[in-house]
Backbone:
RNA sequence: GAGCCGGUAGCUCAGUCGGUAGAGCAUUCGACUUUUAAUCGAAUGGUCGAGGGUUCGAGUCCCUCCCGGCUCACCA
């Protein structure tokens, strides 16, 4: 019944999400046939999130990639599926993050479940609720389709109760699997079940004195007081420790697919074994590589190296970030500012091609192997394309010293009068980003030469002439003549040296646009300010 | 110690079912021009880390090795 036996391999689009969708389809088929009465639940894909911090670029990557597997699964099988974004908000607060207010208040709640820690921002019922809301807003901003799940809700509502009792039944087997992987000191206190302290609410990391699978309780001793407690594992009175928690969740919910970073390879293996002990089947999944910063170091939230989602989106549209995540998930990639332009143009090339492929065969393998088909969630079309590549816009911004989108648009219109922000929304978006990228990365790297005495006099003269010009409607040809006249008047020989001076002193580059046209678009007053600043800057040196 | 990934042009990288090695940038030359420029054309540049195997044919598949990077082994 497996699709892999019926569908010819050559029809499978050659894109990694389809390879993954195949694995997922096989997994679903297997659990359906393995179950006595059949198991026709929708395919369940899960992504995990730890709400001790804010969502970051890795969170985006995992949800985006999982969504693409889901999209491929739908295209491949036509069968229903769900994507569960699971927040482990019952996890204990281990240390106070350094980017939040009220840190001394939070200090008192170390060891408490995140869902019981007050919100330091004061906007939600708990710290976890705050971060969960941030996660949802973040995911919604990208238009992801998902169901949100709170670990605390699942535990307290009893949705995990049956699975938790099952854990007690096979408790010793689970221990036997986990203990050999731990160091001797950790082994002494390890328990897969973590009861919550009935009075303090703290997540207790102590050895269990006794397990009662029939009553569904554990007995343990409070190391602080010596007091002995008998705690039910059900109803949110206890939670599971990390790897066992993952396994229990896979088992309880019947997760069919979950991807994870390569740092979790051992955890996936171990959780899979525990899941099997419980009587379930570990989900299918993909191990992705981690991102590196500009120096090839692993990106971590605490170090703050690499690049945040916000930073990327300042310099390029979200589709380009999707393109980055789509490319070779199993390969380590540098995630830094300088990859943005190339990635953006990669996306644009794919989006362009997708339009053609859509027209030729809207359900063909070629279109479905196109990254843009995934990134655009199947909504391929000219609105997602741009007639001008991003790299060209950056060049243009640099040449024209474009510090506002309007300047850039002036040049673009001269290039093609039919193009406007209204007719080409993607281009409008790219223009804004190109200006930002230029301002932050290109312009600071420019070197502005100091003018010679002769040039200084000519520049002052030009500024004076422009002041006289102010008020009139800017005319490129008249301004060009004016610039030309000033150059001749000051005896530049050849005259091209005068223009070279303008570019090197005012724009910090060897070449530039036709200067009259530049002044008309850039603004007469703005150009005067540019000259004044250059003369002043030189005087201070 | 265990595991993952990589090594292709000066740089960053792509290379689909095994079929004459590609792109961008950089460099050089040319076209366009009141001076310059978004652009276009061309040239230069490779022992595909090394060795062996399979094959009519290997950057691509298999094995061994070398080099580099990362991850895990405390927590999640």
Residues:
């Amino acid at each position: 019944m497996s699709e892999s036996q019926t569908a010819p391999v050559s029809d499978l689009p050659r894109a990694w999400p389809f390879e993954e969708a195949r694995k997922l389809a096989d997994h679903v088929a297997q659990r359906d046939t393995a179950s006595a009465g059949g198991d026709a639940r929708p395919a369940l894909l899960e992504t995990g999130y730890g709400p001790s911090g804010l969502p970051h670029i890795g969170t985006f990557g995992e949800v985006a990639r999982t969504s693409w597997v889901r999209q491929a699964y739908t295209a491949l099988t036509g069968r229903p599926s769900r994507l569960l974004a699971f927040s482990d908000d019952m996890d204990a607060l281990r240390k106070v993050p350094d980017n939040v207010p009220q840190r001394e208040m939070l200090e008192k709640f170390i060891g408490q479940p995140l869902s019981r820690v007050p919100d330091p921002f004061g906007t939600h019922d708990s710290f976890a609720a705050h971060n969960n809301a941030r996660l949802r807003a973040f995911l919604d901003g990208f238009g992801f389709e998902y169901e949100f799940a709170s670990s605390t809700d699942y535990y307290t509502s009893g949705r995990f109760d049956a699975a938790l009792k099952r854990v007690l039944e096979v408790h010793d087997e689970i221990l036997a699997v986990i203990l050999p992987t731990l160091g001797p000191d950790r082994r002494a206190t390890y328990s897969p079940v973590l009861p919550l302290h009935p009075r303090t609410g703290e997540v207790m990391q102590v050895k269990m004195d006794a397990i009662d699978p029939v009553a569904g309780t554990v007995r343990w001793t409070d190391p602080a007081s010596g007091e002995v407690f008998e705690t039910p594992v059900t109803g949110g009175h206890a939670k599971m420790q990390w790897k066992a928690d993952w396994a229990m969740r896979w088992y309880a919910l019947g997760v069919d697919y979950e991807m994870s970073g390569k740092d979790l390879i051992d955890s996936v293996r171990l959780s899979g074994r525990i899941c099997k002990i419980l009587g379930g089947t570990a989900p299918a999944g993909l191990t992705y590589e981690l991102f590196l910063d500009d120096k090839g170091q692993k990106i971590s939230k605490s170090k703050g190296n690499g690049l945040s989602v916000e930073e990327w989106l300042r310099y390029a549209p979200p589709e380009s970030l999707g393109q980055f995540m789509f490319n070779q998930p199993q390969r380590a990639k540098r995630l830094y500012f300088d990859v943005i332009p190339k990635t953006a143009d990669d996306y644009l090339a794919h989006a362009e091609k997708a339009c053609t492929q859509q027209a030729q065969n809207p359900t063909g393998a070629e279109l479905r192997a196109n990254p843009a088909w995934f990134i655009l969630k199947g909504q391929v079309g000219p609105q997602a394309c741009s007639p001008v590549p991003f790299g060209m816009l950056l060049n243009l911004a640099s040449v024209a010293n474009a510090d506002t989108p309007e300047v850039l648009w002036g040049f673009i219109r001269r290039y093609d009068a039919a193009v406007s922000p209204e007719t080409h929304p993607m281009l409008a978006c790219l223009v804004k980003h190109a200006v930002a990228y230029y301002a932050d990365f290109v312009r600071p790297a420019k070197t502005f030469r100091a003018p010679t005495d002769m040039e200084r006099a000519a520049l002052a003269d030009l500024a004076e002439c422009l002041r006289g010009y102010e008020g009139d409607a800017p005319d490129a040809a008249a301004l060009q003549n004016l610039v030309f006249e000033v150059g001749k008047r000051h005896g530049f020989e050849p005259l091209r040296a005068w223009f070279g001076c303008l570019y090197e002193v005012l724009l910090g580059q060897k070449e530039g646009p036709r200067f009259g046209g530049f002044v008309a678009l850039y603004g007469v007053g703005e150009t005067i300010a540019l000259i004044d600043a250059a003369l002043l800057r030189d005087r201070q040196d």
Summary: Chain A has three domains: 3-182+240-288, 309-445, 453-540. Residues 57-77 of chain A form the longest helix (21 residues). Residues 3-182+240-288 of chain A form a domain with the Rossmann fold fold (CATH 3.40.50.620). The two ends of chain A are 79 Å apart (CA to CA).
